[in-house]
């Protein structure tokens, strides 16, 4: 079994002419972990992946794989392999020759490379198709071949650039499960670029949320979801209402916030001064359609939209200085006490369900 590499990114930047795509990011990806770089288009995730692979030069900073500084190494000397979004299979070669290609380049004899390629195809359950060409395969099968081809060099880290984006929704979910299983079986480090929160949550041990060339948060999925570090992360991950305002009072470690044009909100445990700008997040699934009691917080709002989702119902309400405050209620709760667009509703939540969001906007 190949060994896994820790990937240490030390103050790495990528500058293309006048554009700084990546701003001095630092990150340690533990050996043998499944890491997802997540962020909107243009945030610098592909540039970062390509710098790890060696397909893009590092403008400043250093990259360490295992104990070796590989900053200036060509791709072939890094013990990494990359799987591209388009799979980049050779149309005129059969699957064995596609998978064996990099061994051929390394001068490995034909018999050995064919045996290894067949073993890789077996691992990916594609041995029965060994004599076919890529055009004779489905999208999911092509992806398995691309994985076999990337893994034949026994890399310490596999780098995947939007590997599931070409697949239909059903296949995407199936291949996602296969990728996770493969990573656990091989035990090597996977670094996977995606713009899908759901994909990152399903796969990653470590999610790295990027925005505008910087890392907003790098943590386990549950931490990123439950304790988003910034308003950007809370908005990007979804399922949070993000509200901005200024601190209006501080009592017993509880900070009260006055939202622009709205009522008071409160959050625990943050060092703040009266008047300071503050962002908070409130989980959409923790808001209840009940008036606030002594133990809860809340406000009055007007329902502006209702979306039925099956197991839950999504309500959008206006009030509290926000036009798109979202409430997710279970279908059972909703149909027990239905509301309609235009109805006034009382909303409430517990103080524990409010998270302070760092990096405050002034
Ligand atoms: N070869 C290049 N020359 C100039 N600018 C580039 C080049 N490659 C990327 N950029 C710019 O760098 C920034 C980051 O691009 P990058 O491809 O890393 O983002 P991304 O998060 O992977 O986006 P996407 O999800 O759309 O692939 C963007 O502003 C992009 O326009």
TrEMBL record:
<dbReference type="InterPro" id="IPR003593">
    <property type="entry name" value="AAA+_ATPase"/>
</dbReference>
<comment type="similarity">
    <text>Belongs to the ABC transporter superfamily.</text>
</comment>
<dbReference type="GO" id="GO:0140359">
    <property type="term" value="F:ABC-type transporter activity"/>
</dbReference>
<feature type="domain" description="ABC transporter">
    <location>
        <begin position="7"/>
        <end position="237"/>
    </location>
</feature>
<dbReference type="InterPro" id="IPR008995">
    <property type="entry name" value="Mo/tungstate-bd_C_term_dom"/>
</dbReference>
<dbReference type="GO" id="GO:0016887">
    <property type="term" value="F:ATP hydrolysis activity"/>
</dbReference>
<dbReference type="InterPro" id="IPR013611">
    <property type="entry name" value="Transp-assoc_OB_typ2"/>
</dbReference>
<dbReference type="Pfam" id="PF08402">
    <property type="entry name" value="TOBE_2"/>
</dbReference>
<keyword id="KW-0813">Transport</keyword>
<dbReference type="InterPro" id="IPR027417">
    <property type="entry name" value="P-loop_NTPase"/>
</dbReference>
<dbReference type="GO" id="GO:0005524">
    <property type="term" value="F:ATP binding"/>
</dbReference>
<protein>
    <submittedName>
        <fullName>ATP-binding cassette domain-containing protein</fullName>
    </submittedName>
</protein>
<dbReference type="InterPro" id="IPR017871">
    <property type="entry name" value="ABC_transporter-like_CS"/>
</dbReference>
<dbReference type="Pfam" id="PF00005">
    <property type="entry name" value="ABC_tran"/>
</dbReference>
<keyword id="KW-0547">Nucleotide-binding</keyword>
<dbReference type="InterPro" id="IPR050093">
    <property type="entry name" value="ABC_SmlMolc_Importer"/>
</dbReference>
<dbReference type="GO" id="GO:0043190">
    <property type="term" value="C:ATP-binding cassette (ABC) transporter complex"/>
</dbReference>
<dbReference type="InterPro" id="IPR003439">
    <property type="entry name" value="ABC_transporter-like_ATP-bd"/>
</dbReference>
<keyword id="KW-0067">ATP-binding</keyword>
């Amino acid at each position: 079994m190949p060994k896994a590499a820790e990937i240490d990114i030390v103050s790495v930047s990528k500058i293309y002419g006048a554009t700084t795509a990546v701003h001095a990011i630092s990150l340690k990806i533990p050996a043998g972990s499944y890491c997802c770089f997540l962020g909107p288009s243009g945030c610098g995730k592909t540039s970062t992946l390509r710098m790890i692979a060696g397909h893009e030069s590092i403008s400043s900073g250093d990259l360490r794989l295992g104990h070796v500084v590989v900053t200036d190494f060509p791709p072939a000397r890094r013990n990494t392999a990359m799987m591209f979004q388009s799979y980049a299979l050779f149309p005129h070669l059969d699957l064995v020759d596609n998978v064996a290609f990099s061994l051929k380049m390394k001068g490995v004899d034909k018999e050995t490379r064919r045996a290894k390629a067949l073993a890789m195809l077996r691992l990916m359950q594609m041995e029965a198709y060994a004599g076919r060409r890529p055009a004779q395969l489905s999208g999911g099968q092509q992806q398995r071949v691309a994985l076999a081809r990337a893994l034949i060099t026994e890399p310490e880290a596999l780098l995947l650039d939007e590997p599931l984006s070409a697949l239909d929704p059903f296949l995407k979910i199936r291949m996602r499960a296969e990728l996770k299983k493969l990573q656990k079986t091989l035990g090597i480090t996977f670094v996977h670029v995606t713009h899908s929160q759901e994909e990152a949550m399903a796969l990653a041990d470590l999610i790295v949320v990027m925005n505008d060339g910087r890392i907003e948060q790098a943590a386990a999925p549950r931490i990123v979801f439950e304790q988003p570090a910034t308003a950007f992360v809370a908005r990007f991950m979804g399922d949070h209402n993000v509200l901005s305002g200024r601190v209006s009072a501080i009592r017993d470690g509880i900070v009260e916030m006055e939202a622009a044009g709205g009522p008071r909100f409160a959050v625990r445990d943050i060092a703040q001064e009266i008047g300071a700008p503050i962002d908070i997040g409130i989980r959409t699934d923790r808001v209840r359609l009940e008036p606030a009691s002594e133990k809860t917080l809340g406000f009055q709002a007007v329902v502006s939209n209702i979306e039925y989702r099956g197991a839950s119902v999504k309500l959008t309400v206006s009030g509290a200085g926000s036009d798109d405050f979202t409430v997710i209620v279970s279908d059972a709760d909703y149909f027990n006490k239905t509301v309609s667009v235009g109805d006034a509703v009382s909303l409430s939540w517990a103080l524990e369900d409010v998270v302070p969001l760092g990096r405050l906007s002034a």
